[in-house]
Amino acid sequence: MAAPLVSKAERAYIQASLQATPPLRADGRGLLDFRTVLLETGVAPLANGSARLNIGKMPHEGGGGTEVLAATKLEVEDVETGDGVDGGRVVCSVSCSPSAYPHLSSNALDELQYDLTVILQQTIGHPSLHPQNLTIIPRKKSWLLNLDAVILTDAGNVVDALFMAARAALWDTKVPRTRAVEYHAPEESQVPRDSAAAMDVDQREAIPAASGFDTREMIRTAADFELPDYWDEGEVLHGRERWPVCVTLNLLPPTHFLDATPPEEASAPLRIHLMFSFASPTSPKLQSMRLLGPGELELTHIKSYIADGEKYARELFNALEAKLREEDVRRNVKARDRFASR
To answer: What is the pTM assigned to this prediction?
Structure first.
């Protein structure tokens, strides 16, 4: 998204290589091949959910690639007197490490952060993806879900990496279980103060000694909440299967390619970001689409690219889903053992 400048000769060489038969890329990949994707969840102990994702890490050198760290944090908001919204809300933020973009000025870096934040917020924060379990006490208290992402290094295809890391962090998020409580003040004794019986032990014991906190049938009149102790730290976000993935088509008519490196991004005149949600395997939903670059596309070509992007996004979604379920099993076993050893 902020590719470094390349010379005209280098750009022409890259474009000719990509349009050759067979096409040639500097790292030997095919046009539709992704670089190695590494994913780990639960990397931030103080977050409610977190993930670290790397695309294109060099196995022999131990570095390189596009690396994104994403984490979620839940905060309690007051609906009646604060900024809270009944049902909760989702707020996204993206930060870029200056070391990832040494060629950008501070103002340009701020603009890049703003652009990425807008893309993520408008897609993740859409009402159709809103989780249903961000309510604590109806019309009184709710959860604010903060999704923060940090781009540590950018070696190309940063938007796809950003959405994969965000989806993994949201998938890993646990919403603390809450139990509504209500306080009932004990009634004063009806015994007259000047009566000798007021000092009698039996009379004083007649005052109910039970706790004033009652958790039965009070969800409508609850004044506050408490957090019960449980081994799995809470429940997952409702509808977490709906969180979208992004696939970026780098357009070099009459062909296109995926997972571009920075020189390839600088050589492609157009890029189209397609965000797909696969809540239902039979009816995927195009959540968002963005076209970047100075060129134009005909409507028929856009429809063709959307159809191709859906196929690529489904393959990416299935691979990411399988990895996230493996991480789920690993994290749950670890959490259960840690709770049992307390």
So the answer is: 0.84
CA count, 13 A, side-chain hemisphere, 18: 25
Low-confidence stretches of the chain (pLDDT < 70) are 1-4, 59-62, 183-223, 229-232, 334-340, 342
Going from the C-alpha of 65 to that of each of 2, 157, 161, 163, 246, the distances in angstroms are 15, 10, 10, 16, 18
Q: Express each pLDDT in 178-221 by its tens digit.
A: 877 776 666 655 545 554 444 443 333 334 444 444 444 444 55
CA distances, 265 to each of 18, 20, 226 (Å): 12, 17, 51
Please name the residues in contact with 59: beta carbons below 8 A apart, sequence gap of 6 or more. Answer: 36
Specify the 3-state DSSP secondary structure of 152: strand
Q: Minimal CA–CA distance to 292: which of 246, 341, 329, 326?
A: 246
> What tokens does 20 get?
């050759």
d(CA 279, CA 304): 22
Residue range 112-125, pLDDT digits in tens: 999 999 999 999 99
The sign of the torsion formed by the CA atoms of 298, 299, 304, 307 equals positive
Question: The tokens 């022999």 sit on which residue?
Answer: 60
Vertex 225: Cα angle to 219 and 227 (nearest 5): 125
